[in-house]
Amino acid sequence: MKVIVTENKIQGGAKAFEIFEKGIKDGAKTLGLATGSTPETLYQNWVKSDLNCENLTSINLDEYVGLTPDNPQSYHYFMQKHLFDKKPFKKTYVPDGMAKDVAAYCKQYDQIIKENPIDIQLLGIGRNGHIAFNEPGTPFDIGTHEVKLTKNTIKANSRFFDNEDEVPKSAICMGTANIMQSKKIVLMAFGEKKAHAVKEMIEGPITEDVPASILQKHPDVTVIVDKAAAQELDDKYKN
Ligand code: F6R
């Protein structure tokens, strides 16, 4: 894993954008995208750039079950607001949180990913080491699935809602197997609350207890962390 330590999340977002921009100029056509606080500085750089996205396809990692695309807390809404409204893509996929038959829909989403192999996948990481909503204990070999959110994740995400009770209890999410099939992965993490998960992901054993640790097995992963998120890492990673 290549680790890049930046001063702060502003610089981290700029660095991540450089990687995406270069990848797209070099021919990447399908991007796996993420939501949450972490990618905001990347998307800020993206929308103010002159990068043309009209030939690109995007596939998002996850969506809450039960939220309509026009719900301001939905990941559909987030993506429209932070990127797609300002940078139109050829085609964008975000899981349908209103799907009636969630299990059948998950199979459909796997098919979408199969037909549009992901060239560059963007990831954030949860404080418990989750990637997408693959919580600790999720098998490494599964595709898109419905996941019950842990208490910790509900609590962490309640900052975007009026109160904890409003946070949906489950989500549709790409599996670790989908993520590992991407050609290139860029994971961003900022702030001291991510420091332990970052250390476990990079230096710890590969275990389903820390879903992000599977990334050690991927041949092309770049981790962009600010100094606070890098603080527990061995000195050799601090460039
Ligand atoms: C979002 C996602 C999540 C987040 C993670 C970190 O699409 O899949 O795994 O990347 O929960 O969230 P933030 O960035 O809000 O700290």
Automatic annotation (TrEMBL):
Residues 25-218 form the Glucosamine/galactosamine-6-phosphate isomerase domain. Pfam families: Glucosamine_iso (PF01182). Keywords: Carbohydrate metabolism, Hydrolase. Pathway: Amino-sugar metabolism; N-acetylneuraminate degradation; D-fructose 6-phosphate from N-acetylneuraminate: step 5/5. Signal peptide: none annotated. Gene3D superfamilies: 3.40.50.1360. This is Glucosamine-6-phosphate deaminase. The gene is nagB.
